[in-house]
Amino acid sequence: MDIFFSRFSVVLLVLISWNSFTTTEAYDALDPNGNITIKWDIKSWTPDGYMAVVTIFNFQQYRHIEAPGWQLGWSWRKKEVIWNMVGAQATDQGDCSKFKGNMPHCCKKTPTVVDLLPGTPYNQQISNCCRGGVISSWAQDPATAISSFQIFVGQSGTTNTTVRAPRNITLKAPGPGYTCGPAQHVPSTKFMSPDNRRKTQALLTWNITCTYSQFLARKTPTCCVSLSSFYNETIIPCPTCSCGCQNSSLAGSCVDPKIASVVPALGKNNLEPLLQCTNHMCPIRIHWHVKTNYKEYWRVKVAITNFNYNMNYSQWNLVVQHPNFDNITQLFSFNYNPLNPYADINDTAMLWGIKFYNDMLSQAGPLGNVQSELLFRKNPSKFTFEKGWAFPRRIYFNGDNCVMPPPDAYPWLPNGTPNLETSPFIILLITFISVLILM
Ligand SMILES: *[C@@H]1O[C@H](CO)[C@@H](O)[C@H](O)[C@H]1NC(C)=O
Ligand SMILES: *[C@@H]1O[C@H](CO)[C@@H](O)[C@H](O)[C@H]1NC(C)=O
Ligand SMILES: *[C@@H]1O[C@H](CO)[C@@H](O)[C@H](O)[C@H]1NC(C)=O
Ligand SMILES: *[C@@H]1O[C@H](CO)[C@@H](O)[C@H](O)[C@H]1NC(C)=O
Ligand SMILES: *[C@@H]1O[C@H](CO)[C@@H](O)[C@H](O)[C@H]1NC(C)=O
Ligand SMILES: *[C@@H]1O[C@H](CO)[C@@H](O)[C@H](O)[C@H]1NC(C)=O
Ligand SMILES: *[C@@H]1O[C@H](CO)[C@@H](O)[C@H](O)[C@H]1NC(C)=O
Ligand SMILES: *[C@@H]1O[C@H](CO)[C@@H](O)[C@H](O)[C@H]1NC(C)=O
Ligand SMILES: *[C@@H]1O[C@H](CO)[C@@H](O)[C@H](O)[C@H]1NC(C)=O
C-alpha cells in the first residue's frame, strides 16, 4: 500500500511538472525571448546596387549552431545578383551567362550562403566571420554568438525607395525547427568607430527574426537519461528505443563497439549520425548518479556519453531542471548559469564545459564522455530521497529534450532505511585513524 502510494505520487509529481512545461511547443518557457535575429545593414550605395553587412545574432540562451554550421537562404525580389562577398560565400554561382567580363559571385534567384572556414586569409575576412558557421549560445559566450558577412549586391535599385528586402529568408542549416519572419524596416543601426570617437549609421536597416520550435523540428529524440543512486544498486538504463530501435527499418545504421576501430567514420562532423549499437540508440546519454549524502549537503555525479562516431560536439550544453538548483553550492569542472525565466522559480540551470578543458565532447569511443559533480545544500523543507525527488525533472542536451525513464522505474529507497547520512564527523574520524595507521 505504501509503495503503491509513493509510486503513484511520483507519477503525479512528474506529470504535474511535465504538464507545466509542455503547454505550447513553439514557445520555450525556459527561454521565452530566445530568437535568432538577422540584421541587414545597407552601408553604402554602389553604381548598380549596394553594399551591406549582414549580421546573425543568436539571442538564444542555450541553443547554438555547431559544425557544419549555418546556411542562410533567401529569395531575391528583383533581378539582383551578388557581385562579391567578404567573410562568407554562396554555395552555387548559378547561371551567370548573361554577364561578360566581370563575373558576379552568384546569379541565383535563391542563393544559399555559408560562412568561411577558420584560417581564411585576412583580406577575405570581416569581424565575426569565418568560424565555419559555428555560433555559440548567448549564455555560453555572447562574443561568439554573432556571425557577420559583407555582401555587394547589383541590379537591386540604388536608393532607399527602390531597393527591396530579400524574402523567404531561411536558416537552411541547422535546418527544420527555425522559422524566419519577413524582413522589417527598422531604425538604422548606429555604428561606433573602434576608438569610440566617431558614430556612423546604416543607410537602411532590415531585421529578420527567426524562432525555434521543437514541434516544427519534429525530430526524433537525440538523447536519453539513465539514473542510479548510492542507496539502491539498481541502475535504471535509458528506456529501450528512446531514439530508435536497432531492429527498425534504419537497422544497420549502428556499429558494434567491438569493431569500432574499423568503423567507416567520416572524421568530420556530419548531421547524419553513425551510432554505436545500444538499446536506446541515442547519440547522447546523460547519467545522473545520486552519489553521497552528507548532513547538510548531497552530491550528484553527472556524466555525458557520446555514442555518435560522426560528431565531436563543440560547446555542448545541458539544461537541467531540479528543485534544488536554488541551493546549488558547488559545481566541479562545468560552467553554470541559472536560467530564471520567472524570477520566483530558480530550479533550472544551464551547464556547459570549460573552455579548452571539456567544452568538446569527443566522438564515440574512449574519449567520448565528460563528467562533473554537483553539490547541493539541503533545504530541510523540501529535501528527501523519497519518491525520486533526487532525480532531475527533465534534461536538455544542446536544446533537445532527453527521454527520461518512466518515473515508476526510478531507484527506490529501501524500506525502513535508518540513517543514510555519511556524517562529516565519521569521515574525519576515518581519515584521522588512517593517518594514525600510516604513521
Ligand atoms: C529577440 O531576442 C532579443 C534578445 O533577447 C529581444 O530583445 C527581442 O525582443 C527578441 N525579438 C523578438 C521578435 O522576439
Ligand atoms: C530615404 O532617404 C531619404 C533621404 O536620404 C529620407 O528622407 C527618407 O526618410 C528615407 N526613407 C526611408 C523609408 O528610409
Ligand atoms: C516564398 O514565399 C512565398 C509566400 O510567402 C511562397 O509562395 C513561395 O513559394 C516561396 N518561395 C520559395 C522559393 O520558397
Ligand atoms: C533589430 O536587430 C538588432 C540586432 O539584433 C536589435 O538590436 C534591434 O533591437 C532590432 N530592432 C528591432 C526594431 O527589432
Ligand atoms: C524491436 O525491438 C524492440 C526492443 O528491442 C521490441 O520491443 C520490438 O518489439 C521489436 N520490434 C520488432 C518489429 O521486432
Ligand atoms: C573529432 O576530433 C578528433 C580529434 O581532433 C579527430 O581525430 C576526429 O576525426 C574528429 N571526429 C569528427 C567526427 O569530427
Ligand atoms: C538563482 O540562483 C543563483 C545561483 O545560486 C543566484 O545567483 C540567483 O540570485 C538566484 N535567483 C533567484 C531569483 O533566486
Ligand atoms: C535555498 O535557496 C532559497 C532561495 O534562494 C533560500 O530562500 C533558502 O534559504 C536556501 N536554503 C538553504 C538551506 O540555503
Ligand atoms: C531499488 O529500486 C528498484 C527499482 O525501482 C526496486 O525494484 C528495488 O526494489 C529497489 N531495491 C531496494 C533494495 O529497495
UniProtKB/TrEMBL annotation:
The COBRA C-terminal domain, residue ranges: 222-411
GO cellular component: plasma membrane; side of membrane
Keywords annotated in UniProt: Glycoprotein, GPI-anchor, Lipoprotein, Membrane, Signal
Residues spanning the signal sequence: 1-26
Tagged with keyword Signal: yes
Subcellular location, principal: membrane
Keyword field contains Zinc-finger: no
Top-rank taxon, per record: Eukaryota
InterPro entries: COB_C, COBRA_pln
Protein's membrane topology: Lipid-anchor; GPI-anchor
Family as reported in the entry's similarity comment: Belongs to the COBRA family.
Protein name in UniProt: COBRA-like protein
Native species: Cardamine amara subsp. amara
